């Protein structure tokens, strides 16, 4: 599927690969954001998301004390059962923020540096066809300044589903790859650029960066990125519903069915089960857990001040040749402006059949997370759906309850 919108999309139509130099994006708290949003308004905004061909959607907004949860549509078309409360779903590229936090904790412990070249930790892995791990730093991986090619474009499952639709996906859905194999797919291609120095500002979203980040976590610690996320983040924060599923042919309950439309096919297919356990997007979670994680992060509970400040040093989130857009990208963290002033931090994610959108205020006091259980390969539909989700996030963070 595709990597359409760089910082928010992990997968959507591999036919398109697109889409913060300030020391830090604006961090002023948004205006009028002292109370949890009104449930009826949140429900109306979620219903507006569902109008764009979505089978089910659910959201949670909270000020850290009072939570508002809303649901719209159904969890499964065959049974018509409602979306369950606190449903599990693949959070896609939101996983990247968890991996970035692990690496920044290792930086705080003095076990590596953001300026370490990739070659130091993964000798010979980034090489060939003009790729050079000696010229790419850990910082540039986390901020997508590396210029590395997108491995997903060569991944067998995505090539198969683009060529054959559901049949191709079904044949390849449980095939797994070692991280080294995924990186090797990207190394078949020349890079978009080779960074010119530590202050490289060019930006292009590539999941290859976070496959390498996960490999560095394992090289530094001797444990997988998933084990480190569990030990350092999910267990201390009691995020009991966040993990990589141990069996790709099973899925945690309760959950919704992830539905996918394929090119030239109007039917919706169940794509819930797939072997995706990689560091660029392998986590399953809940809206409640995702909100807790981001509030803890911005509230200073996961990183020392220096490392959190590094995470929030951003560059413009624009693919080469694109002059539009107001978002910015830090180290596994995005910043976007709010209509009421200031801005919010987030990292969206997409997996087959499901989207994750969210926002957290800079002080970590208020968050909103929305999950959407249908994906299509129609660009107009996806743009409209994203716009509706963005309005939900903006209103939830800007408007107090009445």
Give a brief description.
With 402 residues, this protein is an alpha+beta fold. The chain has twelve helices and 16 strands.
Q: Helices, strands, pairings?
A:
Elements: H1 39-50, E1 56-62, E2 67-73, E3 89-90, H2 95-108, H3 118-121, E4 127-128, E5 131-132, H4 138-142, H5 156-164, H6 166-172, H7 179-187, H8 208-221, H9 225-234, E6 259-262, E7 265-270, E8 284-285, H10 287-298, H11 305-311, E9 315-316, E10 328-329, E11 334-337, E12 343-346, E13 349-351, E14 354-360, E15 367-372, E16 374-375, H12 379-398
Parallel strand pairs: 6-16
Antiparallel strand pairs: 1-2, 1-15, 3-8, 4-5, 6-7, 9-10, 10-11, 11-12, 13-14, 14-15
Helix pairs in contact: 1-12, 2-8, 2-11, 5-6, 7-8
Describe the fold and architecture.
- It is globular, with a radius of gyration of 20 Å.
- It has 402 residues and is an alpha+beta fold.
- α1 (39-50) packs antiparallel against α12 (379-398), α2 (95-108) runs parallel beside α8 and α2 crosses α11 (305-311).
- Strands 2-1-15-14-13 form a 5-stranded antiparallel β-sheet, with helices on both faces.
- The chain is 31% helix and 15% strand.
- The longest helix has 20 residues, at 379-398.
- Mean pLDDT is 89; it is low at 1-35.
- The N and C termini lie far apart (42 Å).
């Amino acid at each position: 599927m595709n990597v359409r919108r760089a910082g928010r999309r992990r997968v959507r139509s591999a036919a398109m690969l697109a889409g913060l130099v300030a020391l830090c994006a604006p961090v002023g708290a948004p205006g009028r954001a002292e109370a949890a949003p009104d449930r009826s308004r949140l429900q109306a905004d979620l219903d507006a998301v569902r109008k764009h061909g979505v089978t089910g959607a659910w959201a949670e907004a909270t000020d850290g004390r009072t939570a508002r949860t809303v649901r719209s549509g159904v969890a499964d078309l065959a049974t018509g059962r409602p979306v369950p409360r606190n449903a599990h779903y693949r959070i896609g590229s939101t996983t990247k923020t968890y991996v970035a936090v692990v690496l920044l904790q290792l930086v705080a412990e003095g076990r590596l540096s953001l300026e370490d070249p990739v070659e130091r930790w993964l000798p010979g892995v980034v090489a060939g066809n003009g790729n050079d791990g000696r010229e790419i730093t850990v910082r540039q991986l986390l901020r997508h300044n590396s210029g590395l090619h997108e491995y997903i474009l060569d991944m067998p499952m995505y090539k198969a589903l683009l060529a054959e639709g559901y049949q191709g996906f079904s044949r390849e859905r449980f095939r797994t790859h070692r991280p080294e194999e995924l990186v090797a797919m990207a190394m078949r291609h020349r890079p978009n650029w080779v960074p010119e120095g530590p202050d490289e500002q060019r930006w292009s979203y590539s999941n290859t960066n976070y496959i390498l980040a996960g490999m560095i976590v394992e090289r530094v610690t001797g444990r997988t990125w998933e084990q480190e996320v569990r030990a350092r983040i999910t267990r201390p924060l009691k995020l009991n519903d966040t993990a990589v599923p141990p069996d790709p042919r099973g899925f945690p309950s309760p959950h919704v069915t992830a539905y996918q439309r394929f090119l030239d096919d109007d039917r919706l297919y169940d794509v819930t089960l797939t072997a995706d356990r990689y560091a660029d997007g392998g986590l399953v979670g809940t809206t409640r857990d995702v909100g807790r994680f981001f509030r803890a992060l911005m509230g200073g509970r996961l990183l020392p001040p220096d490392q959190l400040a590094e995470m929030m040093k951003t560059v413009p989130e624009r693919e080469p040749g694109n002059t539009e857009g107001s978002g910015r990208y830090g180290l596994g963290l995005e910043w976007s402006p709010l209509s009421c002033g200031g801005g919010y931090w987030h990292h969206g994610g997409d997996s087959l059949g499901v989207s994750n959108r969210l926002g957290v205020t800079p002080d970590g006091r208020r968050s909103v997370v929305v999950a959407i259980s249908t994906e299509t390969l129609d660009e107009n539909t996806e743009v409209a759906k994203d716009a509706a989700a963005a309005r939900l996030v903006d209103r939830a963070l800007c408007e107090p309850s009445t």
